Amino acid sequence: MSSTFQAPKGTYDILPAVSGTVLAVRDALAAPLRRAGYSYIETPVFEDVKLFSRGVGESTDIVTKEMFNLVKRGKEELALRPEMTASVLRATLQANLHRSGNLPVKVWYSGSQYRYERPQKGRYRQFWQVGAEAIGAEDPALDAELIILAVDAYRSLGLKNFRMLLNSLGDRTCRPVYRAALQEFLRGLDLDEDTLRRAEINPLRVLDDKRPEVQAQLTGAPLLADYLCEDCKAYHEQVRELLTAAQISFEDDPKLVRGLDYYTRTTFEFVHDGLGAQSAVGGGGRYDGLSEMIGGPALPSVGWALGVDRTVLALEAEGISLTQPSTNAVFAVPLGEQARRVLFALVTELRREGVSADFAYGAKGLKAAMKDADRSGARFALVAGERDLAENLVQLKDLTTGDQTPVALDALVATLKEKLQ
Ligand code: ATP
Ligand code: MG
């Protein structure tokens, strides 16, 4: 450590050695969405804290334990966003996007999220998601579309060891009946006070409890699949058929509920088998009631969020490295003051012509500067001293072959552009 300060607990810096991969992952996760009519959206990193308590759910870990509240003039009115669905829906309602055109409103985002969690590998207090929301339509094809786009994104990165878990959470007709049955069952179990309280507020969340002693007691729990109404059953069957027709494999997971309160009907999670405990690389589902929960009209919607950090870890686990283009095509090495001015001007001109170029900064000797040129990954080094300039020349050195040729100054940009074609 060579500084007084360190990144805050649970955060990390995305340094040049991996930042190329991170950017490539974000691009790859978004590319299928952009081809499917989703437009980019950005929202603030903080929002009214009530948007999250109402929109994400009072009984969720995210709201009860993981929220980063901001104190403003002594009051906690704002919070850093723990996820983006509530924000995106808030923005949609605020701008009346749902009234200004055809439904669904289809948007995608890429951004950092904040949760006060216990930091571990793959679990951070600041992490990144690429996500998509399709707002204002109830259509099994839309649920299927989003799932297909996520799978295509993972596949485009070369990932193989991921699986999708699928479930239906029912709707306002059938879920209450199931909820009551589950509550009845949970009351008969040997659970701690916290869990019993959760069973009263949101019993479905208890199914998601990761503790083995809780899971062991849940073996005989009633399953939502047995309580789905005819509409929900038919809807879910259509989603499954569309996925199968698109060669998407999935595993029915009747206990999948996920950590947010707003989900209805289609619910899914992507897990990667090379990541240990933090195996979820993405997840999402339908949230038909969320708009009304935050004061809007009925807007049945569906969306997902994919974790960028864990996708990068999944690539590592599968030994996949995304090839990055070499950063610079040309590296200029001036010998002497006059050469510095001439080559600096040439580098500027090359960049303006679309050729990536860098320069040996600092007073360095030829040997050290040539080492920098090699390290930069450039195809060509541009070397010039007093004698070359007196003849209006620069030396162009191909760093892969070692061949060096003199090129007239006024022909240099054209020559390089041709050689780099
Ligand atoms: P988990 O069960 O691992 O806590 P989650 O259900 O809380 O995940 P979501 O809220 O559905 O996760 O977020 C979608 C994705 O964002 C996750 O699948 C995961 O890849 C990523 N993610 C969530 N929390 C974190 C975190 N603290 N650090 C890194 N990535 C995260
Ligand atoms: Mg979580």
Automatic annotation (TrEMBL):
Localisation: Cytoplasm
Official protein name in the record: Histidine--tRNA ligase
Reactions mediated catalytically: tRNA(His) + L-histidine + ATP = L-histidyl-tRNA(His) + AMP + diphosphate + H(+)
Highest rank taxon of the organism: Bacteria
Gene3D superfamilies hit by this protein: Anticodon-binding domain, Bira Bifunctional Protein, Domain 2
Single annotated GO MF: histidine-tRNA ligase activity
Signal peptide start-end: none
Keyword presence, Transmembrane: no
Self-association and partners: Homodimer.
UniProt cross-references to CDD domains, sorted A to Z: HisRS-like_core, HisRS_anticodon
Family to which this protein belongs: Belongs to the class-II aminoacyl-tRNA synthetase family.
